Amino acid sequence: MTDTWVHMDFFFFFRSLTKIMTEIMLTILLLTPMIGQGQSWDNYGTTFVTIFPENIAFYYPRSPFNALNITALFPNAEVEVFVSEILTYTDTLQAGKSVTVPLPVDTEIYQFGPISQTVRISSSEVIVVQSISKKGDSVQTNVIQPRKNLGTVYTIPSLNYSQMINTFHRSAKNVSKRYRSFRLVIINGMNNINVVTIVKTPVNETYTLSAFAALQLQINGTETAVYSKYSVAVMLTHPCVEMEECRCNMVLNQLLPDTLWDSSFVIPSILNTSNFWLHVSSSVKTSATGGNLELNTLDAYSSKLLSLPSLQLGSQFITTSNLASLRLVVPGMIIEPIAQYMFSACYLAPVSSTDAMALIIAETNYRDSVYIDGDLLLSNKWSPIANSAYSSVLVSLDDTHVIWHPSTKIAVYVFEKSTIVYGGPAIALSGKPDPLGCALVPSKFDVIVKPLSWPESHQYCMLISDELFSPSNEAAEIEMVNILKNESINEGVWIGVRRSLLTLDWYQQKGNSSQNLTYTRWGNQEPGVLAKGMCVSVFWTSGLDFSWETEKCCTPLKSVCYTRPKYFPISNKMASKTERDAGKK
Prior knowledge:
Layout: H1 9-14, H2 17-27, E1 29-30, E2 45-50, E3 52-53, E4 65-72, E5 77-83, E6 86-93, E7 98-102, E8 108-109, E9 113-115, E10 119-135, E11 138-144, E12 151-155, H3 161-169, E13 183-188, E14 194-200, E15 205-209, E16 214-218, E17 223-244, E18 247-254, E19 262-267, E20 277-282, E21 286-290, E22 293-298, E23 302-307, E24 316-330, E25 333-335, E26 346-349, E27 356-363, E28 371-372, E29 375-376, E30 383-384, E31 390-397, E32 401-404, E33 411-417, E34 421-425, E35 427-430, E36 439-441, E37 444-452, H4 454-464, E38 467-468, H5 474-486, E39 493-499, E40 506-510, E41 513-516, E42 535-541, E43 545-551, E44 557-563, E45 566-567
Parallel strand pairs: 3-8, 39-44
Antiparallel strand pairs: 1-37, 2-10, 4-7, 4-10, 5-6, 5-10, 9-16, 10-11, 12-17, 13-16, 13-17, 14-15, 14-17, 17-18, 19-24, 20-23, 20-24, 21-22, 21-24, 24-25, 26-32, 26-35, 27-31, 27-33, 28-29, 28-32, 30-31, 33-34, 36-45, 37-44, 38-44, 39-40, 39-42, 40-41, 42-43
């Protein structure tokens, strides 16, 4: 049994709460959670805009099926879908709930020039969105990037269609002029007029796009970059890339802005084909090395298809001398590799078929700690990736899953097969590893530098966060201590531990609830006698680092507030303790 600190402490809380809170807001120090080296990458947001390019596949003139797959990350997400600014879908989704939204047939874009029939998705809470373009059993999917991941500067890779076809089939193909080259699609990501310039030879072209409008152009390889005043999405697409005689597949590649380029990549090997080509683009002179890739140097704003035969044997680690954009080109598909800095701790792996595979890339030293939903992935099929700290494994998927790692970042690709293989990177949900699951919002510490009594500190932490922090294990203690050290705190700081006024037992105050004390880090001759105090602070002691000591609850001290992480709901319905099928490479 515990007390509610309603005793002599009651006076200190009510004496000047309003004044204290005002002063604290002027002196609070908010600490940004540590998320490791480099940028943190995820695919969720509240505003998305895209188009559905022409898809003739080999079923022409069969009508296409275009749809959105939308998953809510938090409860009560009010989702709206607009096609050409006409509301076509609205619903309130719960956390972890996915819904497929079919779109009108005329959503698909055929014409060149300005385009008004864009698809815009908005939500009151963060969501992730995938597009699905299908004709018969020919399917292409794409993770739609939220507006926050769009940019204003894009280098355009020169994808030479004739070279690709000759590379795949060793023979020239007679295709119509309309389908001889790739198309460039630029989508205004803003709700205002945007000015876009396409850098090309011999003369640049400038276009004005209205709010959430788009532009589709047939390109010939002289285009090198896109510059815009505000954020835009940029895509390369082709309605029917030939795969074999009388068969083709629509391809779609959403480009990353130049600000998101990297120089280290793990190129996935998951397709049962010998036609692997690596496409490299850069805005400066760059060389690419790795695997048995020949040393190749690219001039600025040039592109090359590089042979990578070792990809048949396993995933390869590729580096470039400067920041670059890479894509894996195979018959009927273009795959944007996950740059090393874009590795994430948690992925949503959407699956719509019964013939799907996931390629998981993890640090070799930590590969045995990968989880699929609520269970460990138990596999002896991991393969080390040469010249890197990573290994990869191929696993079968029969439903949508969450794939995550509790302590390090990983990369996940999902590929499905109807008649033609399709897919690409899974949907990144969280950049910060968490031992308890997929943490969408990481934990946060707030160091309150205004000295307060223990009950005042507890109440204020309840106001701005979840609780006055109290470590429940050694790892939590170390995390708190590191934050105090980083902020040069070398004096007493309140934590959420105190005695019960009724039983005199020690307990943790976790927000409005209390818990038995299972972890302690008492200093010498602690805990002290009752007269010394009923509450607990952490105090810097020479030779002992920060340790716990008893303190009178009315003593004014700094304090540490804690906001608990928010997790993506993980279902165990498809999880298994048995070893999962590692597939056949």
